[in-house]
Amino acid sequence: FSASDIYAVAFLQVDGEPRPPRVTWPVKADATNPVWNSSRLLGCAEEGAVVVVDFYDHDESAAYDVTKLSGSRPDFIGRAVLPVADLPVGGGSVEALLELPRRSLSLSSLRRALQPPGHPPACTLARVAPSMLRGPRRKVVYLIRHGESLWNEAQADKDVYGMLSDVDHPLTAEGRAQAEALAAQLSAAAGATPGGDSLLESTQVLCSPLTRAVQTCLIGLAPLLAGEGPRVRVVTLDPNLREKRNAMGKDSSGKWVGGKLQAGVRTTLRALYDDAPERAAPLCEVRLDLEMVQ
């Protein structure tokens, strides 16, 4: 046991009785230390209520509705229970140890999978009031699709071997050109009158951790990520933005996590620019925030 397709289900419980609703956090594929960084509404807590968080290993072949408790059950990993009173609103994060089922894997196996050595398996929770989640009244969000990947090329050519012989395919030469075209458009717009709707005015860049997406981001957004002025200097890799993994989609499975991901992306960028290594160098210098892809 080294990694699981982990998802979480949470609910409030009073005197041993669960209270609706049951809320879920999505599957983190091949995860050893999943991070969600997102909130759910659990309703008003009664006196003496506890928060229960159950962790499961997703099975793509099983059809189970966690909100209705129906269907074939997935593999249960463990449960964290924490009194609501121990979670003050806005009081920071609190660690809750996982209770492991007797039929579960050994504690040592789960510890190696979910936490660093010497630390028992646990989850970290924080409590916020809905009013604390209110951001600016208006935000502008730009969505950019990745350029053509080797998988896209193989699919167009009906090359089954090319589609299935690898995972997490990088960009093709055409995909590189598409990303460079975006960068050229941004550079041309850099001299325009600044405005709140300009992509170059963005204050944060979030990206899927799949290679084709990171390459497109670093190439296409180079005018935003480099240069002078108050520009964004880091790309946050968020697994919630990646393509949903499916049974037959080899292109939806990643190759790396953590520091290996940044090293892998740099290697693929150098390969993509083997004809112009000087153009790959500044792209490889952009810092990737890897906190959510460990």
Walk me through what this model shows.
- This protein has 294 residues and is α+β, with helices and mostly antiparallel strands.
- The protein contains eight helices and eleven strands.
- It has helices at residues 107-114, 150-156, 160-164, 173-189, 211-220, 222-225, 258-272, 277-284, and strands spanning 4-14, 17-31, 50-57, 64-65, 70-71, 75-83, 94-99, 122-125, 206-207, 234-237, 287-289.
- Strands 2-1-3-6-7-8 form a six-stranded antiparallel sheet, with no helix packed on it. A three-stranded parallel sheet has the order 9-10-11, covered by helices on one side. Strands 4-5 form a two-stranded antiparallel ribbon.
- Strand 4 (64-65) and strand 5 (70-71) form a beta hairpin.
- Helix 4 (173-189) runs parallel beside helix 5.
- The radius of gyration is 22 Å and the shape is globular.
- Residues 104-115 have low confidence and may be disordered.
